[in-house]
Amino acid sequence: MTEQHAPRADTALLAKSLVVDELLTLRRDPLPRMSRPRWLARLPHAVVLYLAVLFCFLTNEQLSHYHVTGGPSLVLALMSGVPVAVALSRPIAAWWLGLLAAGLLAWTIHSEVGQGQSWPWMPAGFFALAPLILLAALRVPPRTTVAVVTVPVGLSAAAELLAKPEHSTTSFFTSSLVFGIVGLLGYSLRAVRLARGQLVVQETLTEEERARRTLLEERSRIARELHDVVAHHMSVISIQAQVAPHLVENPSEELKENLAGIRENALEALTELRRVLGVLRSEQPGDPAAPQHPQPTLAELDGLVDNVRGAGLDVVTEVAGIRRPLAPGVELTAYRIVQEALSNCLRHAPGSRVEVGIAYGPRELHLCVSNSAPSRAAPPSVGAGHGLLGMRERAGMLGGELAAGPRPGGGYEVSAVLPMDPPGGSSETKKDA
Prior knowledge:
The protein is of the alpha/beta class and about 425 residues long. Helix content is about 60%, strand content about 10%. It has a five-stranded mixed β-sheet with strand order 3-4-5-7-6, covered by helices on one side. A two-stranded parallel sheet has the order 1-2.
């Protein structure tokens, strides 16, 4: 029993220590602004300052009914209103000031309380402390909020039991009810604010995780598509290494051994490549993007454009420069970028005019797909909205660049620059291809 109760006792002591630390802190904790609407962001601060001035006048007015006037009345009125303004930045310090002001008020009017007048709180005196409890409860933990409410309630009860003037009326029950309500209101508003903040953080993390997962899926799909390209080159190397000895009269043994080693290494690399591809395909066996047939090239672009025209878009193509075969990876990437850009036009710009431009430079391939403003509203899109992410990943894989954004006159434009000789590529390899 002792061992079981020890952790509970330690927890209780720790909780009490934290509450005491919170009540004794004078740290700055500004009242947060309203997030919406922005033009009313400072409305809570203006209301609090208005209440500070209001309670100064009310306290000064009510003190006259207790025959307290002149300098003492003015000082006590200021002591009642100033803590409300201080609570904008230091809620606990303002709460202590409010308790001090309430105690001085009760002591000052004690000998002046007449028949039927309330004590220790004046008729509306506890309303000057209520905003301080509310502003503290908005920014402190729940245990501290309980203390912020309990302390003035306990002090009121003690004052009435020990020093209540004759013929005065009690204000304990009314003040306790008001303090309890504002404390509960502050706790509830703080809980709602914290929940909204956590929801925003969770939504941000979820969006980042979704983008990261989409990026990994896109990279996996690109790797599967490029398998055929790499496998083709490895197969060609293996066949050439096998045939080469027969093309030379009396090849030396060293040449035969080197060519045999080249062929063996090519076959091992091809085996490992297929093993990795098998893992990628097993993760998404039903993925239609899995390469079961030769990957498309820019030579098939006319067929793609015809399909898009059949879907209702007015598409115009223009090719500049000398059209020539490129490295398979560049061909595949260029085709996919144009394909994705045209798909976006179909989804987001129905009825628009689309221009597809391809320019063959000496060292770079330039792509541009632009569309005019849509002639009708686009239907809701079911996709994840990460097409641009995939296009950028493809272009970046080759060391190229991709830019996308709205056009000044309306519509949208996607442009990409792909190097003819991607980093890590070989000019000899492209000649063989």
